[in-house]
Write a structure and sequence with these properties.
80% of the residues lie in helices and 0% in strands. By secondary structure, the protein is mainly alpha-helical. It has five helices and no strands. The longest helix has 29 residues. Membrane-anchoring subunit of succinate dehydrogenase (SDH). GO terms for molecular function: heme binding; metal ion binding. This is Succinate dehydrogenase hydrophobic membrane anchor subunit. Part of an enzyme complex containing four subunits: a flavoprotein, an iron-sulfur protein, plus two membrane-anchoring proteins, SdhC and SdhD.
């Protein structure tokens, strides 16, 4: 690491200027998912196999709807960031840029679809 200046070493940023922020965003979303996934399983699990009206009424309550919405949002954010890192590592050139754009569009579309479904049920 002798090629880094003292300032860059102190700030913690390498040549790309975004690696540290991306790393911390992944860590924060991973910790959030450690909390959200069990909450989601315990709120979603009892409704498996229940009648449609019961499920709609259950997810119409604030707590299950908020847990489901947060889980969907954080999961797809974490997916987007992780898939972007994989694409940056293994795909190069124009294909890399296209793959990242497509993956971001897919993850945002899936998150929006899930959040819209939860909003329709909850409201």
């Amino acid at each position: 690491m002798s090629h880094l200046t003292d300032r860059k070493r102190a700030v913690g940023l390498g040549s790309a200027k975004s690696g540290t922020a991306h790393f911390w965003a992944m860590k924060v979303s991973a910790v959030a998912l450690l909390i959200l996934i069990p909450l989601f399983v315990f709120t979603f699990g009892p409704m498996l196999g229940e009648e449609h009206d019961e499920v709609i009424a259950y997810f119409g309550r604030p707590f299950p709807a908020i847990v489901a919405a947060l889980t969907i949002a954080v999961t797809f954010k974490h997916f987007k960031d992780g898939a972007q890192v994989m694409i940056e590592d293994y795909v190069h050139g124009l294909a890399q840029k296209i793959a990242i754009i497509v993956m971001i569009c897919i993850s945002y579309a899936a998150a929006a679809t899930g959040l819209f479904a939860i909003a329709r049920i909850a409201l």
